[in-house]
Each structure stands twice: as structure tokens, then as C-alpha cells.
Amino acid sequence: MRKRDADPDVLEGHIDSVTGLDVSKDGNFLATNAMDNTVRIWDVRPFASGTNRNRCLRVLRGATHNFEKNLLRVRWSQKDAMLAAGSADQNVNIWDMRQLQLAYRLPGH
Predict the structure, then answer these.
(1) Is 87 exposed, middle or buried (0-12, 13-18, 19+ CB in 10 A)?
(2) Are 93 and 72 in contact, with CB atoms under 8 Å apart?
(3) Per-domain residue ranges for the chain?
(4) What's the pTM?
(5) How far apart are CA 46 and CA 53, in angstroms?
(6) Domain spanning 18-106: CATH 3.40.1350
(7) pLDDT digit string, tens, across residues 74-95
């Protein structure tokens, strides 16, 4: 038997099933999206202040909630400036991470 070094960290915040995640290119942040129609940005630096309960830095919301508009996948841009999330309503939502606001909603995907 192998001894575990430490218990895994649990990031709490989503109120429904997580459907996608992506680590920023610099490795400092984790983006998660869930059936609660939100994208959450987490600080995952090893020595970041706070407990796992308050490592959520930002909550980004998708379109008005219903099953067809759930955010399904999330991905950081090459330089972590933008964050894209595909939606079940066939739109891609793109947030500008400098302004922390929705920049584009691309239909037909």
C-alpha cells in the first residue's frame, strides 16, 4: 500500500454538476463550468491566501438559465486574456478576462 501525501483539495461553489475545466497557461488559475450556468475562476497557486472555500475569484454567468443554455466546456485563450465556454444552445460565450465581462456571444456552434 502506498501512503497518500495529502488529502485532495476540494473547491466548493458550484451548485450543480461541473461539466468542464481548464487550467490557465501560467498554471495560476482554474476555470470551471457547471450545469448551474456559471463559470468560476479559482486561484490554485499553492501558497495563495484563503481556504478552499474562498479561492473563487470570480463568477461569470451565462445566458438566462434553462437546460438548453447550460455552459458545457470552458477553455482559456493562448495568453489567458480571454475565456471561452461552449453552451448547449449552440452559442460560444467569450469573456474578456481583463475587463471581466462578456465580450462576444458567437451563435451557430
Answers:
(1) buried
(2) no
(3) 18-106
(4) 0.79
(5) 15
(6) no
(7) 999 999 999 998 887 788 889 9
